[in-house]
Specification:
By secondary structure, the protein is α+β, with helices and mostly antiparallel strands. Helix content is 38%, strand content 18%. α5 packs across α7. The radius of gyration is 21 Å and the shape is globular. About 4% of the residues have low confidence.
Length: 320
Amino acid sequence: MRDNPPMHLLIPFAFCSSEGCRPALAPLQLPNLQKLLRRLTAQPMDSGDEASLSPPHERALARALGLPTQDGLIPWAALQAQTTLAAATDSAWAFITPCHWRTGAKHVAMGGVPLPDFEAKESLALLTAMQPYFAEDGIRLHYEKPGRWLACGDRFNGLPTASLDRVAGRDVAPWLPGTSNAIPLQRLQSEMQMLLYHHPVNDARSARGVPSVNSFWVSGSGVLPELPRVAAAASPPVVVSSLRAAALTEDWPAWVQAWQALDGTECAALWATLNQGGSAELTLCGERNAQTFSAEPASFLQKISDLFGSKPPSLLLEQL
């Protein structure tokens, strides 16, 4: 017998609440997804709303990894710090993302994330310039990669923050931390905007015609209470992010193409795993809800359903 490793596919942005998504989805043919939905058993829906700080795909991934799932307090940065820096698990961490805010007539919107053409040397130069200001508030910055830094400090303990996937391309005001312990961060935002305005890195970026770095975003905040424990029989989900860019920019033709490509690759691979006797799970995530489908022994009626078809996947995806 073949030993097929378990496979869990997690798909963010499988459906979006924007007006253009529903008509784009209606004619979409996803044959492998449809076959999977005929064979897999739906688990209880993880219901939420579009105003949650942690989107459904982050909640689903956190549960799979054994992380806390309190809204806005999934400790993604602490988990990364433990991996990257071998940091202690009892410290409070957050991600700091250098970003560009677009100022409009009525609101300030988050620009594209990640920043285009943002090199390590530029990121390190900005981190060096900003570090003393953060240090005054007891926050230590650590470089992780150009588009994201790690920050450690008590300010992030119990501070709910919004995922970048919530704010990208949108008005930042509704997503800024609103608790009293966020006041120092609001002051830091203002100070950094002044510091960055004439920084040589931004002068060089303007000369190249790419967006300046004029602010930062805090996300992934919280404390990792202990090492995540994933059941020995479980497999960490494979997160497929190919729908994200098109969904966040509301490019529905590109979103449709990405879904078709995903169906022909990752969904086809999950279907093959299922047919070869392997353990298979599928988690579909929208902007409000997430639902997991898992493999159970196929009954006679399920096999008959395989032969005669089922409702199109679009009807299920619209519930997310």
